[in-house]
Amino acid sequence: MSKELKGLTFAVLSAAFFGIIPILTIYVYQEGVSIYLLLFLRFSIAFILLITYMLCKYNKVIINKEKIIRLLIINGGFYTVFSLCFFTAIKLIPVSLAIIIFYTYPIILAIISIIFKNYKLTKKVLILMLMSFLGLSFSLGNQFDTNKIIGVLLAGGSAIFYAFYTLYSTKILKKYSPLEAVTFSCFFSILVFFIKLISNNKINLILSFKTWIIIILISIISFLGFLFFLKALILAKAINVSIVTMCEPVITILLSVILLNESLNCLQIFGIALVIIAVYKIIFNKEKLKEKSIQSVGG
């Protein structure tokens, strides 16, 4: 298995884990937990898991003090602003519309990479990117009517900040480990969401046992999703990873059909098929190109 294929496999695993989270959050919201409290607890528990893992494996927390500011501002900052924009947007506009706008981030990432990194976007990757986006649009159904421009702008902001987060993560991961990057993303998010909760005076930790179990499960899944995403960025190109992660909402849709008895129309099924085909082509096209390259060198 090539380095690129390993990276894209991690991207699929990351998308699968993150795709489970929306299903679990439905149960948490039904218990009256706010978005900001859920995010605060999600990052707090994930942070505790990370620190515990480091102590068990290394008998110390492997964080260099010199790295703190850069990781906090670049890695944690971009991700936290993305979270704030996206989760505020879904309160103002339909979730399906917010997801569609957010998943323009691979296109934004491609534009940024072309401008600042002289990245050459092939026609095939561009077609697969647009194919994934079109498939995603179909799969989410017809729920896009809205006049709430602030929500649309916030969803757009989440796409921009996530594109920068992805781009800078590839740079950061050349010097720092995924564990360090995830730890600081969680820590910065904890600070921001704690301040938000304090300002609104809405910290209520008296929750049912079932709710706590689900929140802990969400945190564990988030921790693994973060880790797999950053591992993917180490091994594969950021643009290819971003296209593969477009299968995340498709996984959520399929799980909602299985677990929540939701139904799909023909257009949604067609959209899901487009996304799956595009992701498949991205993953195995890279492997074929690798094999051709090896053969040409050997010949």
Could you provide a short overview of the structure?
The protein is mainly α and 299 residues long.
List the helices and strands and how they pair.
Blueprint: H1 3-30, H2 35-58, H3 68-92, H4 95-102, H5 105-117, H6 123-139, H7 149-172, H8 178-200, H9 209-235, H10 238-244, H11 247-259, H12 266-298
Helix pairs in contact: 1-9, 1-10, 1-11, 1-12, 2-8, 2-9, 3-4, 3-7, 3-8, 4-7, 5-7, 5-10, 6-12, 8-9
Which runs of at least 5 residues are low in confidence (pLDDT < 50)?
A: 286-299
Q: Tell me, what's the shape?
A: globular
The average pLDDT is: 78
Taking the sheet with the most strands, its summary is:
none
| Residues in helix, % | over 70%
Distance between the termini: 21 Å
Q: What's the Cα radius of gyration?
A: 19 Å
> How many beta strands in the DSSP annotation?
0
Q: What structural class is derived from the secondary structure elements?
A: mainly alpha
Number of helices: 12
Instruction: Estimate nothing, just give the exact number of structural domains.
Output: 1
Strand content: under 5%
Helix-strand pattern, N to C?
HHHHHHHHHHHH
